[in-house]
Write a structure and sequence with these properties.
Elements: H1 3-15, H2 18-25, H3 29-43, E1 48-51, E2 54-57, H4 59-87, E3 92-97, H5 102-113, E4 121-126, H6 131-136, E5 142-146, E6 155-163, E7 165-170, E8 180-181, H7 183-187, E9 196-197, E10 211-212, H8 215-223, E11 229-232, E12 250-255, E13 261-268, H9 274-287
Parallel strand pairs: 3-4, 3-5, 8-12, 9-10
Antiparallel strand pairs: 1-2, 5-13, 6-13, 7-11, 7-12
Helix pairs in contact: 1-2, 1-4, 5-9
Amino acid sequence: MEEREMRYFVAVAEEGNIGRAAQRLGIAQPPLSRALQLMERRLGADLLVRTPRGVELTTPGEVFLRESRAALDAVDAAERRTRRAVERPGAVVLAVKAGVATELLGRLLDAHAATAGASPVDLLLTEFGDSEPALRDGRADVALLHLPLDGAAGLDHVVVGSEDLVALLPARHPLTAREAVTLAEVAALPDLPPPRWRSPDGTVPHGPGPLVRDQVQLAQLVALGRTAAIVPRSCARSAPTLVDGVGRGVGVVTVMDAAPLTVVLAWPGHGTAAGVRRLVDTAVTVSGVDA
C-alpha cells in the first residue's frame, strides 16, 4: 500500500464524495475512482458504498480510515521531527490547549529550566481537541492532556495533576448566586444550550448550541447569554474579566457532582528523545507522582 493511495482514500472518506475529493487532491475523478477500486481488490473488501449523494464507509472502510490516518500521521511526524532536529537541535515542542493548567504548566517550565542541561521548550498553544493530534502528526513532542486518551494513538503518559470542573454562566443568571450547581441543572437550562466545539478535522457536532472554536469565543458567548458550559477550572480564570459597562460578564460556579479531570503529560511511546525524557522526569518531580 502506497502513501499516495492512503491519502486518496482519506480525502474521499472525509469529503463523502469522489468528485469533491478529486478537486481537493488536484486530480481528475476517473483515476481516483480506479485507485479506489484497486485498493478494494487488493484488500479483498468493499471500503465504500456508492450512494446517490456520494459515498459512505463500510465497516472495513472505517477500519482502513482509522489505520490510514495513523499511518499518514506517522509519515508526517517523521518529516516534521526530522526538520525540527535540523532547525532547532535538541528543542522540545510542548502542546497545550490555550488556558489549560496554566499554573501547573508554569511550575513545570520553571523547574525544567532550572535543570542542568535542560533542552529548550517551545510552546504550541492549540485549539480545542488539537493537542493530541499534534503529538501524532509531529507538530509536538509532548503535550499536557486530560484523560482519557485515544487508545489507538500509541501514547505514553504520566499523571501530573487534576482539575475541578466549573460551570460558566451569564453573570446575571440566578444560578451564579449559588456556591455550587449540579451537572443536571446546567444541562437543563433551556435558553443556554451547550456549545458545539469544532474538532481539528473540521467536523461539528449537531445541536442547538453555538459553534465555538476557542476559550475567548466561549467566554464572550456565555457573557452574551447564548450558552452555558462546563470546563476545567483553569479555563475559567480569564472569563470573569470579560465584563462590559452594563454588567454583562461570566459567572463561574463549582459543579458539585463532577469528577475531577486527570491531567497527564503524554508523548509518543516509540523512540522517546532525551529532551522529552528529561521533561517527563521533571514533571514527575514537580507533581510528586511516581512514573
